[in-house]
Design goal:
Blueprint lengths: L4 E4 L5 E6 L4 H12 L5 E4 L5 H12 L3 E4 L3 E5 L12 E2 L4 H12 L2 E7 L10 H9 L3 E4 L8 E6 L4 E5 L6 H9 L7 E5 L7 H12 L5 E2 L4 E4 L9 E3 L4 H14 L1 E6 L12 H8 L2 E4 L4 E5 L7 E3 L7 H8 L5 E5 L11 H10 L5 E4 L2 E5 L10 E2 L4 H10 L6 E4 L11 H6 L7
Parallel strand pairs: 2-15, 3-14, 6-7, 10-11, 18-19, 22-23
Antiparallel strand pairs: 1-23, 3-5, 4-5, 7-9, 8-9, 11-13, 12-13, 15-17, 16-17, 19-21, 20-21
Helix pairs in contact: 1-2, 1-6, 2-3, 3-5, 4-5, 5-6, 7-11, 9-10, 9-11
Length: about 425
C-alpha cells in the first residue's frame, strides 16, 4: 500500500452526526461462529475493513462460502471441516484474525499454515498453541517459537480440561472458547488471571450464548462448554464500533461542541464504550439514547489516574486528551499494548514528545503532564498503526501544523474515517 500523508487544520467547537461502521470485534466473532454453524447465516452492518476481509478470505480458503455484499454478508459453512488450503493462510497484521483462526482451523481436520507481515511475526501466539496441544493438536512454529509463521496439524479437538494463559491477550482465551463446542467431548476452559482486556471475553461468551451454545460458568476463572455442538445459523446485526466512535467523542471533548454517534446501544458489551465514563469524569456531558450517544465538551479537561487494562485500544485517544488536560494523567496496567500493531506505549510517547508534551514511558503505562501541547516539531508517524493515525488526527483539531504520515493505516479498521472526519470541520489535504 502506498504511504499517504494528511495535514490537519484546527477547528473551533465541533458539531456532527456520525454513523459508525460495524464493530470490528463483533464482526470477527460473527463470521467465525457463522462458519461453525449448522446452516447458512446472514450478518448485516458487518465491518468492511482490511482485518475483517482477511478473516473472510481465510474462511474461504477453509471451504466456507462468504458472499460479502454491500449491505449483507452471507455465510454457508463448509461441507466438511475443513478443506485443506493449498497455500498458507496470509493474515497481514491482524492479531485478532490469527489467534482466533488458529483455534477454528484446529477444530477441523488437516494441515494449515498461518503467516503474515513482519510485524505479525513479532506478535505472540504461544498461549493459543499451548492450549491446542493440550487438546491433541500438533503445532510447529516455522521461525521463532511462539510466533508466526506456524503450521498446525489437527484431527480435531479432544475434550477435557485446558488452561489458557490470557494475561497478554484475551484473544488467546476467546479463540479456545469459540472453538470449544466443536470438540469431540465436553471441554472445561480455565484461565490464568488477570486476563488482559477481559470485556472481549465477556463479548465472546455473550455471542456464543446468543448463537445457541449453553455453557456454564465455573467460578471466576472457568467455563464448561458442552461438545460436540453446532452454533445456530445467525441472523445478526452488528452494532456500531465504540472504538471508532472514540475519536469523535474525543473531538468534542478536546474542541468543545457536540457529537452524536450511532448506532451505539446503552447495553453495549464493547469494552471501549467505557471510555464514556472517563470522558464524563474528565468534564464532558454524556447523553445515552436508545440509538446512540451524544458527547458534549467544553474544551476543558481534568487529568486522571487510570487503569486501562480493560480497554487498552483507547490509550492513544486518552493520551491525546491528557496532553491538553489540567494536571497529570497516569495510564497504567497496559503492558500488553507493546504487542499491538505497534509498541503503542513507546510510539505514543515518541509522537506526543514532538508536541512538547512531557511524557514518561513506564513498563506498563504512561505519565503525561497536560496543558503544554504546542505545534509539533515534525510530521507524526503512524508506524502502520490505525489507532495512532486516528488519535493524532484528533490532536490536529486543536493545534496547528499536524501532518499524519501513513494516513492510509485507518483502512485496517475504519476505511471511511477521513470522510467522517471532514464532518467535524477538520480539513485535511
Amino acid at each position: 500500500m502506498n504511504r499517504t500523508s494528511r495535514k490537519i487544520e484546527p477547528v473551533g467547537p465541533v458539531k456532527a452526526r456520525v454513523r459508525l461502521p460495524g464493530s470490528k470485534s463483533v464482526t470477527h466473532r460473527a463470521l467465525l461462529m457463522a462458519a461453525l454453524a449448522d446452516g447458512p447465516s446472514e450478518i448485516s452492518n458487518a465491518l468492511s475493513a482490511e482485518d475483517t476481509h482477511l478473516t473472510a478470505k481465510a474462511l474461504r480458503q477453509l471451504g466456507t462460502e462468504v458472499d460479502w455484499g454491500e449491505d449483507l454478508v452471507r455465510i454457508v459453512p463448509a461441507r466438511q471441516r475443513w478443506v485443506e488450503p493449498a497455500e498458507p493462510i496470509y493474515l497481514g497484521n491482524s492479531g485478532t484474525s490469527t489467534r482466533l483462526l488458529l483455534a477454528i482451523a484446529a477444530a477441523g481436520k488437516g494441515r494449515f499454515v498461518f503467516d503474515g507481515t513482519e510485524r505479525l511475526r513479532e506478535r505472540p501466539i504461544g498461549p493459543v498453541l499451548d492450549a491446542l496441544e493440550t487438546l491433541g493438536v500438533r503445532c510447529r512454529c516455522l521461525n521463532k517459537p511462539g510466533y508466526p509463521p506456524v503450521e498446525i496439524i489437527s484431527k480435531g479437538l479432544s475434550g477435557g480440561r485446558v488452561l489458557v494463559d490470557a494475561r497478554q491477550s484475551s484473544q488467546f482465551l476467546s479463540a479456545l472458547l469459540i472453538a470449544a463446542p466443536c470438540a469431540a467431548g465436553d471441554i472445561l476452559v480455565e484461565w490464568l488471571k488477570p486476563v488482559a482486556s477481559f470485556p472481549y471475553v465477556e463479548l465472546t461468551l455473550a455471542m456464543m450464548k446468543e448463537s445457541g451454545i449453553e455453557y456454564r460458568r465455573i467460578g471466576e476463572d472457568g467455563v464448561a462448554v458442552p461438545a460436540p455442538r453446532h452454533y445456530r445459523p445467525l441472523r445478526y446485526t452488528v452494532e456500531g464500533d465504540c472504538s471508532s466512535a472514540s475519536y469523535f467523542w474525543a473531538a468534542a471533548a478536546l474542541c468543545g461542541g457536540e457529537v452524536f454517534t450511532y448506532p451505539v446501544y446503552p447495553d453495549s458489551r464493547q469494552g471501549d464504550c467505557r471510555l464514556l465514563e472517563i470522558l464524563e469524569t474528565m468534564g464532558c456531558r454524556i447523553d445515552r439514547g436508545k440509538e446512540g450517544v451524544t458527547v458534549t465538551g467544553s474544551g476543558r479537561l481534568k487529568g486522571m489516574d487510570l487503569d486501562m487494562n480493560r480497554m487498552p485500544d483507547m490509550v492513544p485517544t486518552v493520551a491525546v486528551l491528557a496532553a491538553f488536560a489540567d494536571g497529570q494523567t497516569r495510564i497504567g496496567n497496559v503492558a500488553h499494548l507493546r504487542i499491538k500493531e505497534s509498541d503503542r506505549l513507546h510510539t505514543v510517547a515518541v509522537e506526543l514528545a514532538k508536541f512538547g508534551v512531557p511524557v514518561r514511558e513506564l513498563p506498563d503505562g504512561l505519565i503525561i503532564e497536560g496543558g503544554r501541547a504546542a505545534s509539533p516539531a515534525g510530521p507524526i508517524e503512524t508506524y502502520e498503526d490505525h489507532r495512532l493515525a486516528m488519535a493524532f488526527a484528533v490532536m490536529g483539531l486543536r493545534v496547528a501544523g499536524v501532518r499524519i504520515l501513513g494516513a492510509e493505516a485507518v483502512a485496517k479498521s475504519f476505511p471511511g474515517f477521513w470522510d467522517h472526519f471532514n464532518r467535524l470541520g477538520g480539513k485535511h489535504d
